[in-house]
Hints:
Order of helices and strands: HHEHEEEEHHHEH
Radius of gyration: 19 Å
Structural class: alpha+beta
Largest sheet: 3 strands, antiparallel
Shape: globular
Number of strands: 6
Number of helices: 7
Amino acid sequence: MNDYHQHNIDKVLKEFGKVNNLKIIINNWKKYNFFRKDNNDIVINFVSTNYFNFFKKMRLYIKYIIKEKNIFNPFQKKIFYSEGDFRYLIPTKFLNLKLFKKNIYLNNISAHLINSPFFFVNGCQHIYSKEYLSTLAKNFKKYNLVNFVYNTPFSGSSLEIIWGLLPSAFKFEKWYLDCLHRPRKNFYNYIREDTKKGMKKYMKMYGINHE
């Protein structure tokens, strides 16, 4: 089953490679290095300041100091950053030069314009402009991609990546916002939290009355 899954992932990436310069972008992903050479397995989560308790925050901070041999002010705005097996809470500003081209802050919400085409959201929280959707629809129709996706099992695995690549292929800006959170799995231990207990936890975390 894993081989069949991977086969269809490759098949979808190849078919969508017909769109604009998407094939060129896909073929260049191995040349893109973020913090360390030959490591492209990076996950960024914009977690609530209440997501981790004090002791977990301290453990993550100490782990960062030991691994990176560096320190930072622990009271500034942070993200939960994973690179391979290394997971830390790091200041958002650390990513400004490497990943973020521009930042906007409004109360507790932040928005970041992304430099790299290779970062994507593995979820359904996407907001598109009418102009972008029109461009997307034209390309889907031109290459008959809707029927292709419907008839290709496991196409969703590749599409998570492709949704992140297409804005660069179409020359559109790509922003990430931390104002939407779809509870699914715990960011740290990956235990499912889209349950009654999990939802109660998040409603309390975000100050929502669940009674």
